[in-house]
């Protein structure tokens, strides 16, 4: 019987999300017939390595955020010679670094929003882009720290004063319209989901709170835009060198009619696996149960060391 250690928890701002993902994955893998060892990850690396001794056949990485999806834990697992789910060190590190990922997308000719990296202190003195614009931490996920500065806002200096995500930030033009997402499993883009946030902004609360957002799959958008979203998601997955499952997020500006402007925001190398998560919904739409999805991830785990 294949032994699988499920890593969950972690030390990032997304620990609670990882705890929810990990609990679902543990139950699903047991249902699928694997011998599962839950490994609750904290800040003690030696304890983590001890928990992986003797080595399991596979590590299911259910960590989210920094140290879980930025290449850090992937490097440890490569060193230990243990196959693991999702992407490797390089792809994980680039995807988590929004500036690096943006450069890779531009090099691949993929559609991204106008923007640049700034020193956060610049916000105290002037708007870095024409209003409205979006400010994002360079190395956080799940919309942690994301701010929208709109026409008439006087929050720019306050955002700069309260910023706690390092000295730099990515600022991009705000794209009006709709929120879309596409999951990719290895060489296949699954479907397009439209997300409508109850608050009007798909932030951390909207992503994970019960009733925080509404998902429509397949998205009711122009067929050309639907096909383009699938194409760009797969191209972004490949541009970063990802493996296993990823999820690409988009803005779709149809305010002047369809087909509208499709803009790639980011690629998530560790898609959420919670009750409100998007990858499991798209897999289910195509007839794949949650245990089957988790089993697919285990069977496609590799060692990259």
What would you say this structure looks like, in words?
With 305 residues, this protein is of the alpha+beta class. The protein has three domains: 3-85, Rossmann fold; 95-111 and 176-295, 2-Layer Sandwich (D-amino Acid Aminotransferase, Chain A, domain 1); 115-173, Dna Ligase, domain 1, CATH 3.30.1490. It has ten helices and twelve strands. It has helices at residues 15-31, 45-51, 72-80, 89-96, 98-107, 156-162, 204-208, 223-239, 278-285, 290-299; strands at residues 3-9, 35-41, 58-61, 115-119, 133-137, 147-149, 168-173, 178-185, 188-197, 213-216, 245-253, 261-268. The strands form three sheets. A five-stranded antiparallel sheet has the order 10-9-8-11-12. A hairpin with a 7-residue loop joins strand 11 and strand 12 (261-268). The two termini are 24 Å apart. 47% of the residues are buried.
Number of helices: 10
Chain-averaged pLDDT: 92
Low-confidence parts lasting 5 or more residues at pLDDT below 50? none
Helix/strand order: EHEHEHHHEEEHEEEHEHEEHH
Query: Which architecture of the largest domain would the CATH scheme give at its second level?
Result: 2-Layer Sandwich
Q: What is the rounded Rg? A: 19 Å
| Number of structural domains | 3
The CATH topology of the largest domain corresponds to D-amino Acid Aminotransferase, Chain A, domain 1
* Shape, principal axes of CA atoms: globular
Largest sheet: 5 strands, antiparallel
What percent of residues adopt helix (DSSP H or I)? 25-40%
Strand-pairing-aware structural class: alpha+beta
